[in-house]
């Protein structure tokens, strides 16, 4: 059986994850034995990680735990040293990043990437124009600006936005690709309470109304508690714990790794 016979058909979405699990489930993404080495150093170590369609998962863990690397393996920015990645029931391990975007995986990276001298509308148009033209492009751009919570700011240069609004803009840009899975790397780092609140609202709304599944890397436990269904803790490249935020917060071993007592 060749899992990639249907590679050229990005319109097929939410096929049962038979390939990944051997049974019919709502699994959207699954990694199996995923591993990434840099030189002799193992950044992601035998990770089995899966999320359901429409789920909102937070990924936490101390600095250097492998969180950003795991997301970059999912987007295809990095190729794994070994292991498999399944998306929508298909093996995407060897699928290139651009094709993964077309299949519905979108990411907002840790480093901000809006163009300060372009307006909000011009920024949003950049990702959209690679995938849509004409009326469809206009519709997607308008929807993304609304999803970003930036209606009324279309003609404002991005450099004139607050840091929080720039993060909102980036989430809108990632959402403009109409993904089924949106990966956010530290979307509220350095933001104040009101700005974090605005991001939480954007994320929960996109998750609720557009049914976009999220994996969100975040340290701020209040933010995590507000948005997450489930939390996965990475430590030394491995999945250390999974559970509700209440379970994770009260877990003595999790507290210990954050204090740096187990390295
Ligand atoms: P996190 O996002 O959890 O803070 P990262 O995934 O960025 O952690 O990094 C995990 C580990 O892998 C760190 O020790 C980091 O130094 C190392 N690492 C990440 N990217 C690279 C790279 N491109 N080359 C070498 N080492 C890397
Ligand atoms: Mg990181």
Which features characterize this protein?
263 residues; alpha/beta; six-stranded mixed beta sheet; 10 helices; 10 strands; globular; disordered N terminus; binds adenosine-5'-diphosphate; binds magnesium ion
Oligomer: single chain
Which molecules are bound in this entry?
adenosine-5'-diphosphate, magnesium ion
Q: What characterizes the major β-sheet?
A: 6 strands, mixed
* Class computed from helices, strands and strand pairing: alpha/beta
Task: Report the span from N to C terminus.
Answer: 43 Å
SSE pattern, N- to C-terminal: HEEEHEEHEHHHEHEHEEHH
**Which strand order do you get reading across the main beta sheet?**
6-7-8-3-9-10
Mean pLDDT: 89
Strand content: 15-25%
Summed up, the helix count is 10
Over all CA atoms, what is the radius of gyration?
18 Å
Shape: globular
Which residues sit in consecutive blocks of at least 5 with pLDDT less than 50? 1-18
> Based on DSSP secondary structure assignment, what is the total number of beta strands?
10
Share of helix, binned: 25-40%
Could you describe the 3D structure shown?
This protein has 263 residues and is an alpha/beta fold. The protein is 35% helix and 24% strand. The chain contains 10 helices and 10 strands. Strands 6-7-8-3-9-10 form a 6-stranded mixed β-sheet, sandwiched between helices. A 4-stranded antiparallel β-sheet has the order 2-1-4-5. Strand 1 and strand 2 form a beta hairpin. Helix 4 packs across helix 5 and helix 4 packs parallel to helix 6. It is globular and about 50 Å long. The N terminus is likely disordered. Bound molecules: adenosine-5'-diphosphate and magnesium ion.
């Amino acid at each position: 059986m060749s899992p990639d016979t249907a590679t050229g058909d990005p319109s097929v979405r939410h096929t049962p994850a038979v390939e990944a699990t051997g049974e019919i489930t709502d699994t959207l993404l699954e990694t199996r034995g995923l591993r990434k080495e840099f030189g002799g150093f193992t950044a992601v170590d035998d990770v089995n990680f899966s999320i359901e369609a429409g789920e909102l998962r937070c990924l936490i863990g101390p600095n250097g735990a492998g969180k950003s690397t795991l997301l970059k393996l999912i987007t295809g920015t990095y190729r794994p040293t070994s292991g498999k990645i399944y998306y929508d029931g298909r093996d995407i391990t060897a699928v290139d990043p651009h094709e993964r975007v077309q299949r519905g995986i979108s990411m907002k990276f840790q480093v901000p990437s809006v163009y300060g001298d372009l307006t909000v509308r011009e920024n949003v148009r950049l990702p959209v124009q690679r995938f849509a033209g004409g009326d469809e492009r206009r519709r997607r751009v308008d929807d993304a600006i609304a999803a970003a919570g930036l209606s009324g700011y279309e003609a404002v240069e991005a450099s004139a936005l607050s840091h929080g609004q720039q993060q909102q803009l980036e989430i809108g840009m990632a959402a403009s690709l109409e993904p089924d899975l949106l990966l956010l790397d530290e979307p509220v780092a350095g933001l104040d309470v009101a700005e974090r609140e605005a991001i939480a609202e954007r994320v929960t709304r996109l998750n609720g109304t557009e049914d976009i599944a999220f994996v969100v890397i975040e340290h701020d436990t209040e933010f995590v508690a507000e948005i997450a269904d489930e939390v996965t803790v990475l430590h030394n490249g491995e999945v250390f714990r999974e559970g509700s935020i209440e379970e994770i917060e009260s877990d003595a071993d999790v507290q210990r790794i954050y204090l740096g007592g187990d390295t």
